[in-house]
């Protein structure tokens, strides 16, 4: 399966899920919404499931958004996604050039759909575990996906990052496994208080039954992740027959775009990198002890 086809299919499903969530938030059943839209219930079902034969026409989508009382931000997002489904371009490897809003990343939709997420970070605390103050420091740095001089865009990106964290405590939350390079703990982002608060937040998150954090100490020496840089691996639910609804995806983010790898040899390679690092990292209890110890050092600074 090519990335273009996979990207289109994934986008349709993400769009369908978004429209379904907006309908439910408006308190409408499928039958009620279909009647008000003068559509067959089966048609609405196909739209919400992102079926390949559905054309997300702008006029139809706008009518649904009006009925559901969608916010301006949701309207912008959904219309951009719908426009992307009608284009043939391969935006899968370049979300910024896709016609989607700059701040939107497919990664957010993938996270929401995943049952298991594994993240390796050599430099920064992953967004799902960041405090607001830590995120503010990150988004102020030049060279990222958000314009560091645009305060409004920064604030929107920070808010989106914080809202994403509800993923970890929702019903049927995904399993999140994180491996942090020791440098993430040792290199100050902002001041000592921000770092102490951030490390305490990681410890608190690790108390959730679906969150595991390991630290890869400097003393572990050379490891497979030294060549890969930061990455995520996401796995998705199975259908009634035990088949995955989407193939696993390895996600790599750069300053100007993102790469999504879903071919089996690609995800096998990243699974091997993960296994090597997980084997060399401290176990969970020792990792948390180290994080608490470093947090105390920052508190005394």
Protein architecture, described:
51% of the residues lie in helices and 12% in strands. It is globular and about 65 Å long. It has helices spanning 3-25, 30-37, 41-48, 58-68, 72-85, 106-113, 132-140, 151-164, 182-186, 192-206, 225-228, 264-280, 284-300, and strands at residues 116-121, 175-181, 211-216, 231-235, 249-254, 257-261. The chain has 13 helices and six strands. The termini are far apart. Helix 7 crosses helix 8 and helix 10 (192-206) packs antiparallel against helix 13. Strands 3-2-1-4-5-6 form a six-stranded mixed beta sheet, sandwiched between helices. The longest helix is centred in the first third of the chain and has 23 residues, at 3-25. It folds into two domains: 3-89, 434 Repressor (Amino-terminal Domain); 106-300, Endonuclease, Chain A (2-Layer Sandwich). It has 301 residues and is an alpha/beta fold.
């Amino acid at each position: 399966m090519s990335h273009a086809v996979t990207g289109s299919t994934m986008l349709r499903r993400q769009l369908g899920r978004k429209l379904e969530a907006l309908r439910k938030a408006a308190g409408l059943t499928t039958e009620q919404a279909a009647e008000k839209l003068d559509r067959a219930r089966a048609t609405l079902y196909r739209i919400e499931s992102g079926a390949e034969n559905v054309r997300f026409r702008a006029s139809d989508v706008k009518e649904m958004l009006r009925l559901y009382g969608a916010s301006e931000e949701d309207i912008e997002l959904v219309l951009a996604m719908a426009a992307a489904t009608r284009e043939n371009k391969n935006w899968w490897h370049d979300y910024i050039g896709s016609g989607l809003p700059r701040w939107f990343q497919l990664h957010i939709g993938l996270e929401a759909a995943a049952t298991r997420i594994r993240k390796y970070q050599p430099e920064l605390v992953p967004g799902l575990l960041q405090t607001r103050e830590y995120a503010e420091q990150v988004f102020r740095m030049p060279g990222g996906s958000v314009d560091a001089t645009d305060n409004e865009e920064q604030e929107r990106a920070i808010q989106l990052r914080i809202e994403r964290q509800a993923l970890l405590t929702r019903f049927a939350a995904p399993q999140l496994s994180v491996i942090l390079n020791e440098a993430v703990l040792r290199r100050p982002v902002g001041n000592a208080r921000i770092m102490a608060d951030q490390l305490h937040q990681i410890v608190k998150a690790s108390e959730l039954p679906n969150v595991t954090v390991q630290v890869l100490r400097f003393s572990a020496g050379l490891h497979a992740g030294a060549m890969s840089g930061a990455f995520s691996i996401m796995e998705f639910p199975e259908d009634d027959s035990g088949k995955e609804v989407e193939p696993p995806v390895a996600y790599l983010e750069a300053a100007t775009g993102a790469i999504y790898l879903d071919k089996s040899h690609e995800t096998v390679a990243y699974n091997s990198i993960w296994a090597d690092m997980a084997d060399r990292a401290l176990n969970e209890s020792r990792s948390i002890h180290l994080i608490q110890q470093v947090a105390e050092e920052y508190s005394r600074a």
